[in-house]
Amino acid sequence: MSKVKRFQIFLLTLLIAVFFVYLPHSQAVVDLYWAAMPPYNTLWPLWSPILSPINPLTDLPTPIVGNLRPSTVLPIQPGLTWDPNLEYPWLLYNTPFGMAYYDPYTGVNTWPPRYLRDNFLGLPLPINLKPFNQFWLLTPTATSWINPIVPIANNAYIAAYPSYAVAYEILQGGTLANYPIFAALLNPPPPLQSLLTPASLLGLEILLP
To answer: Mind listing the pLDDT tens digit for each residue in 25-62?
Structure first.
């Protein structure tokens, strides 16, 4: 066998080995930062210890919710999700209508944004993540954005929440005092202290039970 043939075989073997080593490594790196969340394919932060705690069975960060639908109830808030076509993510909150999100430009809105829903049927229009297949290049949200924006979003949510309650009451056709069953569906606005801080989202603050 000629030296050229031996070199070609060696090179091919090396490329195959690199492929099989690199592929699982790339997936492991992907799992460190973001995960696609159904049904809209917005990304959920695996880098936030409180939003994606370590699963003791897999030893991997695992989102605290399995989907982000209007009916999803967040066990802690704000959640955080990102359309990688945009510069920064949205912060997610619970409301009597279902989930809402905070956008720095438009304030608090019901989830999801209109462009993620079909205009006629209201069905999800998932984000095409193909341009972002190299998820390891999508780094965690900058601390310099989280630190100022999260308190503003929390305050905007607290300010907007009573308006949700009033609108819900009107839709029911009476006062909450006359309809205790409806009152039971409406949680009072949570105190600001119950919302996550920038430090807790970033894993820099230990939350006491």
So the answer is: 334 444 579 999 999 999 999 999 999 999 999 999 99
Does an H or E element contain 74, and which? Answer: none
**How would you label 41-71 residue by residue, b for 16+ Cβ within 10 Å and e otherwise?**
bbbbbbbbebbbeeeeeeeebbbebeebbee
Alpha carbon distance 38, 47 (integer Å): 18
Cis peptide before 96 (omega within 30 of 0): no
Strand, coil or helix: what is 121?
Answer: coil
Collapse the DSSP code of 168 into the 3-class scheme (helix H, G, I; strand E, B; otherwise coil) and give the result: helix
Q: What is the pLDDT of residue 17?
A: 43
In terms of pTM, does the model score above 0.70? yes
Alpha-carbon distance of 37 to 90, in angstroms, equals 13
Burial class (CB in 10 A: 0-12, 13-18, 19+), 145: middle
Domain boundaries in the chain? 31-202
Report pLDDT digits (tens) over 92-119. Answer: 999 888 899 999 999 999 999 999 999 8
12 vs 9: CA distance, rounded Å: 5
